[in-house]
Amino acid sequence: MKRKYIYTALILLNLGVFSSCSLDKDPLDTYSDVTEGVNEEGEKVVFKDKAAVDGHMTTLYNQMRDRQEHWYMDLLLIAESHADNAYAGTTGAEVVPFENNSIEGSNSVIERDWRRYMEDIGRANLLIVNIDGVQDPALTTALKNRYKAEAKIFRAMILFDMVRLWGDIPVITTVAGDITEETLEEVYPQYFPEQKTEKEAYQQIEKDLLEAIPDAPANNNNDKTKFSKSVAKALLAKVYAEKPLRDYNKVIQYADDVAADGFSLEPDFTNLFGVQEGSADAKMRNTRESILESQFFVGAGNWVTWMFGRDLSNYNSNFTWAKWVTPSRDLIKTFQTEGDQIRFSESVVYYQTTWSNYYPSNNYPFMYKTRSAYSSIIKFRYADILLLKAEALINGPTPNLTAAAAIIDQVRQRVKLPKLSSAVKASKEAMLEALLKERRLELAFEGHRWFDLVRLNKVESVMNAVYGKDEGRKAQVYPFSVNSYRLPIPQAIIDQNSKIKQNLGY
C-alpha cells in the first residue's frame, strides 16, 4: 500500500472525518506526490528535497493564518462565553451550552476542535519525524534543526490548548506506520492511541519547548509571525503557571527572559487592536508587545471578523445575523466601575442591529479586538506574561506583594488608571483579586478568562455566582463543580477509540 494512502487512513481513523459545519474549510494540505518522493537509492521518502520541506513548513504556518476556527474562534467562545466575560451571542445549539453550562460530548464545536488540533499535531509530527532523513545538500543540518524546533513549538502550542481544555489527551509524537499483513498487530494500535495523563501531556510540552529553544530562530522585531525562541519562552512561562508543573520561580525566570528578548508594554494600548481610518488596515503590526501573531492584508484577510461583529474593511458584509461572544453586562459593569475607558473602548463597541437576543437592537455591544479583516490576531502578548509574573510573585513560595503591585500598577498606568491602594497591596488575597480583575480587563476577548479561573481554582466561586447578578445571562443548567474544569471529550472520538475515556461529570 502506498504511504500516501496510509496517511489518509491515519487522518480518517485516528483523527476522524471533519465535522459538517458551514464554517469548516477544506484541509489546507493532504499527503501527496508533491512531498512524497524517491531518494537516490530508489527508496520512497516523505520529503524528497528541501523544497518539499519548505512547502510543509509553509503549511504549518498557514494553519495559524487560514484555519482560525479552533485555535481562535472556538477558543474565544470557550474562554469568554463559558466564563463571565460574554454570552454565547446566538441561539444556536452549538454555542448556547457554553453560556448556560450544559456542554455535552455531542457538541459539534468541541468535536471540530479536537479533530483540528489532532490534525495540526499530525502535520507537525510528519516534519519532526522525517526531516532528518531528507537527502538534499541545500537542507543543512542547522536548517533541519531550526525547522524541527519551529515544528516542536507549534506542536507544544497545540498540545497546550488541548490539555487545558480536556486534561488527559493522547500525546502523539510519531507517525503511524504502514498497515500490512505483517505489521498489522504492531501498527494498528498507533491509529488508536491511549490517553496520557494531564501531567504527562505537560511534560511533553515542556520537553518540546526546552529542546526547541537552542535551534529556534531569534525574535525578529519586524516579523512576529514566527515560532521563535521568544514564543517558546513565553509558552514556558504559561506552562509553569499551570497546576501539573507549577513552578512559580520558573514563571518569573521565563517572563524575565521574554523581557530580555526586547519585549515590553506598547505605550499606547490603542496600537494593539486599532485600525487606520479609511482603509481599516491594522494600525500597527509587530508591536513591541506582540510575541506571536497572525497577520492579514488586502486580498488575504481574516474571515473570523464577521463572526464577532462588523468587518470595518467591508462595513455591511455579513451583518444580518447574530454574532458569537456578546460582551456580558457583568464585564461591562466591571469596566465602568473601574473607570477603565481606554480598554473598554478598545474591547467593546456598540452598533444598531436587526436582532435583540441580549440587548436592545438600537444599542447592541460587540467584542472589538478583531474589528477588521486586516486586524492581526495576537496569540501571545507580553502583558499576559507580565501579569503571570505578578501572579507568581503573589502565589510563589516567597511572596513579594510589592513587586507584584508594581507590575499591576505598570499595566494600569498605561491606560491612565490609578495605582492600587495601600490596603490592597498589604493583603495577599486582595492582591490576587486585583490581579484577576486586571487580567480580566486587560485581556478581555483574547481567550484567557476561563483558563485564569481554572488555573486559580475560581470556577465555582465566580461562575456559580454570576448567573444571579447578571440578569442578561441565560439560566444555568448545571452548577459548576470540580468536574467542570475539563470539557467533555467528543463522544464521536470515544466511539471511535475505546482507549479514550470520558471526563468525569459528563
UniProtKB/TrEMBL annotation:
Residues 58-240 form the SusD-like N-terminal domain. The keyword Signal applies. InterPro entries: SusD-like_N (IPR033985), SusD_RagB_dom (IPR012944), TPR-like_helical_dom_sf (IPR011990). It is found in: Cell outer membrane. GO terms for cellular component: cell outer membrane. Its main location: membrane. SUPFAM superfamilies: TPR-like (SSF48452). Transmembrane segments: none annotated. Keywords: Cell outer membrane, Membrane, Signal. It comes from the Bacteria. Residues 261-506 form the RagB/SusD domain. Pfam families: SusD-like_3 (PF14322), SusD_RagB (PF07980). The keyword Zinc does not apply. Residues 1-24 form the signal peptide. Belongs to the SusD family. This is RagB/SusD family nutrient uptake outer membrane protein.
